[in-house]
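Researcher: Structure for this, please.
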Amino acid sequence: MGGDPFYFGYTSDDFHAHNISRNKNWPLSMITTSTHDTKRSEDVRMRINVLSEIPDEWENNIRQWAEKNKNLKILVNNVYEPKPNTEYFIYQTLIGVWPDNPVSTESMGSFIERIWQYILKSIREAKIYTNWIKPETNYEKAIKMFMNAILTEGESNGFLESFKAFQNKISFLGKLNTLSATVIKIGSPGVVDIYQGNETWNYCLVDPDNRGLVDFKLRKSLFNKLNKNSDPNVFTGDNIENLKFYYTMQGLLFRRRNKDLFIGGEYIPVEVKGPGENNIIAFIRRHGDDIALIVALRLFANLITEKDFKMKSSIWKNTELILSKEISNISNLQNIFNNNVIPVESKNENLIIKTSDLFINTCVCILTNITKKNL
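Model: Predicted structure, token format:
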């Protein structure tokens, strides 16, 4: 929680510098992306982050939705509510928290109430038009009526159809963001913390929404199912619903079996060269001769085709990972997630990996030279 609105994003160099410092000074500090006090869970934030990649498209949708819904606003003290900032906040929240599965008419009421409790807490704690000590009930009632109206199915509701189509796109790209963030977190310096419930897709908001019961039976079932499946083709983008759990499970098992790599092991940034260099984060963890190369994609909006959500392969044609000159005597590495063997080639006195060999139906990988018994 918390942040600095005046610091607008990190570069990949900033990211590596931070991790190098963390590995040197705080190698045992906790690294987490959701907690009991997170205002928006990691998966919600990863969806919302997509919007920064497509600002023009997002702005166009916001303007269209505002126009469609303007007659649903309520006059309070000679002002139509909600005002633009609050209306924007509602749309942004819905983008982040909309369920993966269709919302039935029966469950829509409880969904709206859940979102309303979050919006209510936000507008009261903002203390601009209402607050906890002296609630402005007419204002709050107007906001709630607006929310109910825009989320009520009907022929006259042009907003929902437009919203669902756009949100479906954002949801998929958000999942890819989460998969990358999950693997980066597992490979980075620090002690990894997975807040209970976030092993799978979890679209929750501020407490008490983020403190619900966790379905451990489901997670046990997923563990047994995925741990026994030896078909690497199962773990691709076509089976994205299980991937977060699978990457979390395999990544943590690998960390546990190779503690010295991640607690006290070196952190070495990996240079990326080529058309796709801005879309890749890569680094090596090393202890002695053992290495783990973590590679994750980012900024997915320009990597995925609109029609079928498949990766644009052309961007990887001449994009390469250039390994540090400190890394030597390696001819191939194995992906811990699907057991694929990736060749390491020599080029201009450097060892390189062609990214076209990496990103086939996947957006992340952990490559290692460690023998099978410790994978």
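Researcher: Any notable elements?
Model: The domain at 28-214 is CATH 1.10.10.470 (Arc Repressor Mutant, subunit A). The mean pLDDT is 90.
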